[in-house]
Amino acid sequence: MKTHTRVLVIGGGVVGCSVLYHLTKLGWSDVMLVERSELTSGSTWHAAGGFHTLNGDTNMAALQGYTIRLYKELEAITGMSCGLHHVGGITLADNPARFEQLKAERAKHRYMGLDTEILGPEEIAKFTDGMVNLEGIIGALYDPLDGHLDPSGTTHAYAKAARMGGAEIVLHNRVLETNPRPDGSWEVVTEKGTIIAEHVVNAGGLWAREIGAMAGVYLPLLPMAHQYLVTDDIPEIMDILKSGREFPHVMDPGGESYLRQEGRGLCIGFYEKPCEPWSVDGTPWNFGHELLNEQWDKIEDSVSFAYRRFPVLERTGVKRVIHGPFTFAPDGNPLIGPVPGLRNYWSACAVMAGFSQGGGMGLALAQWMIEGEVERDPRGFDVARFGTWTTPGYTVPKVIENYQMRFNVSYPNEERPAARPFRTTPMYDIFDGMNAVWGQQYGLEVVNYHALPGEPRHEEPTFKRSNAWEATRQEVLAVREGVGINEVQNFGKYLVKGPKARAWLDRIMAGAIPKPGRLSLTPMLAESGKIIGDFTVSCLSETEFQLTASYGAQGWHSRWFDQHLEEGVTIENVSDARSGFQIAGPKARELLSRVTRSDVSEQSFKFMDVKPMTIGMAKCLVQRVSYTADLGYEIFTDHMSVRHLWHTLSAAGADLGLRPFGMRAMMSLRLDKWFGSWGREFSPDYTPCETGLDRFIRWNKEADWIGKAAAMSEKAAGPKRKLVSFVVDASDADVVAWEPIWLDGAVVGFCTSGGFSHWTGKSVAMGFLPADRVQDGLECEIEILGERRPARVHLAPLWDADGARMRG
């Protein structure tokens, strides 16, 4: 066993072996893996081995497609069999909402290059040889890539391919300690000796929590006990085999089950509601190739449902029961990437669907380590998405909820209730008393809207317009006609200080860094030129700046800042120390003038000015800018002064019609001006020239800002696609995101976001078109829930096109 290595992967399951292989594939050969027992000794060996591409996150779906296509490559490289069975998969819909979800997923697949199709009951019967009881079934989604494989053979193929690329694998060698060294490398103490590694990858699977704890890290994941059955031989399956075919995968979300062929019988597994978390307080080191005891009682209802949906099962004996643990994160997605707060320590765990996602996650992590970033937006699986605020008390109920709802319909406006409320602002009880309907972002409770008198304090999950419609409309009108107030807690906020603060910001940000008393808008780019942040930079003095951005991107942005920090600069995340409100609308200036002795006239307090002010008795920082696209101000203060600030503003604004508004109204208001949103229009999938953020880049500044070369290259060549805006002839459902855009009978683009503009009374959308097709008034179609709706490009803002209201 060597004692020094560039990368040490801890854990020999399918994910650890995939990471090892992809590191060698991308050119790093000085890598090794240590495993406490044999390869596949955790969840991998008892996995059902199914794989599929269906995933609500388009980047996850694409990486799952990569994983599935990779298996034949592995077989060709190694000469080993992965036991591949590309039998195709069918996901059943037994209610209109589920069918709408499948149609929306099919629409996404059109521009992703995935060849899926919607089936009717007759086609389902043909695909499944009549073995599915179609009572209540409306339709299904068919994916020809779905199938199953041999978990052990596949893992060993990854391992052999990695060895062929120079990797070393050491078995029966448990890790005892991981100790950071001053130079950023790690001392990893194992049973067979100490290894010095430049990078450590935690692919510990069931033991990832224990491995993380050795480095002082809490990883929010939990093993769940999962059970599936393998039947005796079934005559109908034997007849299918004789004809030279195989039975397809069948996902039955209504029955919380998945079913596939296993030899001459069937394998069926369940995501039952009375589920069981396993080893909540830690996985025993001596656990390995054991299975858990059979528990028929917890799957009794699921089995009964399966007998009705698949009648052949009731006539068949059970050959064996597989009951074993595998890990989930609170949202069901993997925890991948550089762990915030640690140098050269990487997470590759909670990959629940290892044989659907393992290849893609291995590729993503290897790209991150070697190239510094991932070719696809990794936010859906980035370990940083949970920040440092998670605890086992939060993780356990969220994982249980995710397991129970794994086959539930996933709605775009759904707010799941487990482990809530957890993190709240000083305004929580006040807004709760005003009929707030709550959402959450990065664990924080935020107001979505305020229910009208007599309305339920709950937004109905739907793919169409919800019961929040009228309340949201009234909040929008309150802003446009008078003055609205909204909490600004859900902004990420950072203080950058020091003698080199300006120079550092000039390097980190692509845009102009403002003069004292002014603010600017600027993208932050990766070396590839892709967008990794959309910031407001406020200059408080030559040595102090406040940055604001998305609250949910704190972990991502803080990690980036730490990685690029220099002497002479300090950065403090004050996202939860500073809060306050934004006020917006034609009466906003009048309201502000009533609560401060400072001069807030148009001449004294110009658009994009920032000033310290005393409001009531509170010290505040006030910025003249608003995401509502209206005359507005953002007012920041410390948490201890927030309630006083609220009472001061609300009392002064009572006769002005001051009304609180939530995020539903905010998203409608921003669309009037075609303001993009972080995570929708602006993300690591896109560039400034594609999205229009290039207008905020200071192209001629002297600083050698990160991403400059790539951005300059794209500017010279011109982007191949452009973000544009649409007015849509919608019915009762608006664009959400990822809907395909049709032009001349072909899909040429996709939507990034949309909704209803309550002020203009129009259904609107934003999305990408080929740059050479963009023209104002262009007629096209946008597919919403399987129906193509007429749409036209509308380049000018629907509201305040000349900026007179916002700047006046």
As a percent range, the share of strand residues is 25-35%
Radius of gyration: 27 Å
Structural class: alpha+beta
Task: Specify the biggest β-sheet.
Answer: 9 strands, mixed
Summed up, the helix count is: 20
Q: Shape, please?
A: globular
Distance between the amino and carboxyl termini: 71 Å
**Total number of beta strands:** 38
> For the residues shown, what is the average pLDDT?
96
Domain Aminomethyltransferase C-terminal: 721-800
Domain FAD dependent oxidoreductase: 6-368
Domain FAD dependent oxidoreductase central: 371-424
Family: Belongs to the GcvT family.
In words, what does this structure look like?
The model has no long low-confidence stretch (mean pLDDT 96). Strands 4, 5, 6, 12, 13, 14, 15, 16 and 17 form a 9-stranded mixed beta sheet that branches. Strands 1, 2, 8, 9, 10, 11, 18 and 19 form an 8-stranded mixed beta sheet that branches. A hairpin with a 5-residue loop joins β9 and β10. By secondary structure, the chain is α+β, with helices and mostly antiparallel strands.
